[in-house]
Amino acid sequence: MKLFIDTANVSEIQQAFELGVISGITTNPSLVAKEGRDFFETLKEIVAIVGNIPISAEVVALEAPEMVEQGKKLAALGEGIVIKVPMTAEGLKATKIFTSLGIKTNVTLIFTSTQALLAARAGATYVSPFIGRLDDINQVGMNLIQEISQIFQVHSIESQIISASVRHSAHVIEAALLGAHIATIPYKIIESMMKHPLTDAGIQKFTDDWNQANQKGF
Ligand code: E4P
């Protein structure tokens, strides 16, 4: 399973990219609004940092023709730009058009496997089921990953499943075990995935022992 970073914060993207663990980026209008910066300038900076890896940028129009116009402007910013489209009838129409134009899409706000199947059949490059938001309403978000994963596998569907709305590192492991192709995660979860108290304790012990032995090897 690949890891994408879920943020519009350029400095977080830079830090995650330097770690070498990130294969793509997802943004959404709320994440962009949180940064308080110009969307297009932000995307240009992201492209300059990461090059042509997938960067999901979301349209905000609600009708297919306007979605397509917005998506074309975003796609012109770089080869890696993936147009994020909401899971609606208009979003499906726009996905079909983007597919015919050779523009990659990420159909977002997916909460059922029927939505995922429709998005895939419209040609979506990626589908984004939102795990955490289902957990928030007392449904088991991971069941959705399992269902979509099984349906796509049985029917050889090529759309890739992005496990989205990930809230903690256990979600990442479960998504990987259940066959999601990608998990998109906030920077703070990448940090938490790196850490273990025994790693810190081990480094401290190695350092103390080395210093006590008065080694001059380096
Ligand atoms: C990613 O594509 C989604 O926009 C994001 O993961 C949503 O996460 P949230 O439910 O924490 O806002």
TrEMBL record:
A GO molecular function assigned to this protein is: transaldolase activity
Q: Which InterPro entries match?
A: Aldolase_TIM, TAL/FSA, Transaldolase_3B, Transaldolase_3B/F6P_aldolase, Transaldolase_AS, TSA/FSA_arc/bac
- The record's active-site residues are 84
* Any matching Pfam family: TAL_FSA
Q: Name the domain of life.
A: Bacteria
Name the pathway.
Carbohydrate degradation; pentose phosphate pathway; D-glyceraldehyde 3-phosphate and beta-D-fructose 6-phosphate from D-ribose 5-phosphate and D-xylulose 5-phosphate (non-oxidative stage): step 2/3
Its recorded reaction(s) are: D-sedoheptulose 7-phosphate + D-glyceraldehyde 3-phosphate = D-erythrose 4-phosphate + beta-D-fructose 6-phosphate
* Record keywords, A-Z: Cytoplasm, Pentose shunt, Schiff base, Transferase
NCBIfam families noted in UniProt: fsa_talC_mipB (TIGR00875)
Could you tell me what this protein is called?
Answer: Probable transaldolase
Q: Gene for this protein?
A: tal
